[in-house]
Structures are given as structure tokens and as C-alpha cells.
TrEMBL record:
The chain crosses the membrane at residues 7-26, 32-50, 62-83, 89-109, 116-132, 138-158, 170-189, 195-216, 228-248, 254-271. The keyword ATP-binding does not apply. This is EamA family transporter. Keywords: Membrane, Transmembrane, Transmembrane helix. Belongs to the EamA transporter family. Residues 8-131, 141-269 form the EamA domain. PANTHER family: ACYL-MALONYL CONDENSING ENZYME-RELATED, MOBA-LIKE NTP TRANSFERASE DOMAIN-CONTAINING PROTEIN. SUPFAM superfamilies: Multidrug resistance efflux transporter EmrE. GO terms for cellular component: membrane.
Length: 283
């Protein structure tokens, strides 16, 4: 597989991930039940892939810890998407590079550059705009969970970057733990299952999580960091568009302004870092 094909695969992954908000908005389940049920099908999809590839799923402290972190990311993200607008939730998670930067500076004593400080300042300004809009208590909680989801996603990235475990094995265990977390909630908040809800859950698990993660695992090692950064920007752009077209949900004007600012800042920052890494590798 060449770099061009790998980049196309990443674009396909981002496009498939972008439907998460739409599917979640169409399912009238408790958020944790939504995440639990979709992860059953995601884990099954990954399990079939491992069987076909004859890849033995690793069971050790590294994959279990990574799986627990991943499960927390998935659970909090779905809760955020359920409680606030899809645009708010996805952009707040898209800020994960900023959270990685802050965590790395505080806990790993990573050197902070001028552009790092600027990206944090402008990102915080953008996020502040999310909370200016008049929102209900549930939407406010969704915004807070969106930030928490981004922080957890950043922690997950740092963990995967420092572990020698297979990332797909970590995702698999994340799906398994997410499915298990939801079991008590099926009894506390019995879901009203409809044909649309059933289809949405299966699609979320297989098409939104399982297949894209497999494609991502195949493509990411054959794609430059710059191409990967640009390709995956499609997700935060498409997510609110799909939700608006299929559900009719639109973010507030201040939230929209904040989303544009955050996406612009993070996109430029990611491209800048990828170019710097590419240049350093060539020297």
C-alpha cells in the first residue's frame, strides 16, 4: 500500500467516524446504553478481523489499562454527544492536542514553545465561546463532558504513544469494557428498542467503530504525519453537517464561532507540527 492509498483510507475512516453524532441523536437510549450496545458490535467486528488475520489478542496489564482508558473515552464522548450539540462535542474533543500539550508540559516536563502557548490561549478563547450561548443544564453538562472527553482522548494518545502494545488490541478491550460498563444500565433504564434504533446501534458498532479502526490501523503506519493530520480533519467538519441535515440540530452562533476558531487553530498547529517532524526526519 502506497502513501496515496493510505491517505485515502484515512479520509474514508474520518468520513465513517463523522456519522457518530447522527446515529447517536437517532437513538433514544441512555447514553451509556448507546455506547455499551454499539461496542458489542464493534468488539465482534474486531474479533472477526483478528480471527481472519490469525492475530492473537494480547491480554496483559498494558492492553487492559489501555482498554480501560479507551472505554472511558468512548463512554464520556457518547454522553457528551447525547447531551450537547454534535458540533460542540466533536470540537471539544478535537482539542485533544492542546490537552496533550498541557499534560506533557506538566507531567513530562516537555519544553513549551511560543506557538504552543499561542495555541492554548486561542483554544481556550474558542472554548469559552461555547459557554456564552444560552444553554440548558443538560447542554452545559454536555459541554463539560466534551472537555473531559478531549482530556481523556489526550491521555489515551499519550498512553498509546508510550506503550508497545498493539493499538487495535487496546481498542478491542476498550469496546469489551464499554459493553460491560453498560450492563447495569439496561436494568436501570430499559431501552425502548425500535427498528431504527437497532439499525443505528449495529451501524455505530460496525461501520462507525469496528471497520474504521481496522482501516486506521492498516493506513496510519504507511501515511505521513502531515497527510494523516489533514485527512482526519474531515471528521469535525462533517459531523455537525450530517447532524444538521438528518436531525436538524444546529449549534448556537457563539458556539459556531468558537468551533471555527478552535478548528482553525488546531488544524494549523497540527499541520505545523507534522511539517516540522517531516523536515526533521529528512535531515
Amino acid at each position: 500500500m502506497g502513501q496515496g492509498q493510505a491517505t485515502i483510507l484515512l479520509v474514508v475512516c474520518a468520513a465513517m467516524w463523522s456519522f457518530a453524532g447522527t446515529w447517536i441523536k437517532l437513538v433514544d437510549f441512555h447514553p451509556i446504553i448507546i455506547n455499551s450496545s454499539r461496542c458489542v458490535f464493534a468488539a465482534l467486528t474486531l474479533f472477526i478481523y483478528f480471527k481472519i488475520k490469525k492475530d492473537k489478542i494480547a491480554v496483559n496489564k498494558g492492553t487492559i489499562l489501555g482498554g480501560l482508558i479507551m472505554a472511558s473515552v468512548m463512554t464520556v464522548t457518547v454522553a457528551a454527544l447525547s447531551l450537547t450539540t454534535a458540533a460542540n462535542a466533536i470540537i471539544l474533543q478535537y482539542m485533544s492536542p492542546v490537552y496533550v500539550l498541557i499534560i506533557s508540559a506538566i507531567f513530562f516536563h516537555q519544553k513549551v514553545r511560543g506557538k504552543d502557548v499561542l495555541v492554548v490561549i486561542f483554544s481556550i478563547l474558542g472554548v469559552t465561546l461555547f459557554f456564552i450561548d444560552k444553554v440548558a443544564a443538560g447542554s452545559l453538562l454536555g459541554n463539560v463532558l466534551g472537555i473531559c472527553g478531549g482530556i481523556l482522548f489526550g491521555i489515551s494518545f499519550l498512553y498509546n504513544n508510550r506503550t508497545k502494545q498493539n493499538p487495535l488490541h487496546i481498542v478491542f478491550w476498550g469496546c469489551v469494557f464499554s459493553a460491560l460498563i453498560g450492563i447495569p444500565f439496561y436494568f436501570l433504564y430499559p431501552p425502548h428498542i425500535t427498528a431504527l434504533g437497532a439499525v443505528a446501534v449495529v451501524m455505530m458498532g460496525s461501520v462507525h467503530l469496528g471497520v474504521p479502526y481496522i482501516l486506521y490501523g492498516l493506513a496510519i503506519q504507511r501515511c505521513s504525519a502531515l497527510n494523516a493530520s489533514v485527512a482526519t480533519m474531515i471528521e469535525p467538519i462533517l459531523t455537525p453537517i450530517w447532524v444538521f441535515l438528518f436531525v436538524g440540530e444546529a449549534p448556537g452562533k457563539y458556539a459556531l464561532a468558537g468551533a471555527i476558531l478552535v478548528m482553525l487553530v488546531i488544524s494549523l498547529y497540527s499541520i505545523s507540527n507534522a511539517r516540522a517532524a517531516q523536515k526533521a526526519a529528512q535531515e
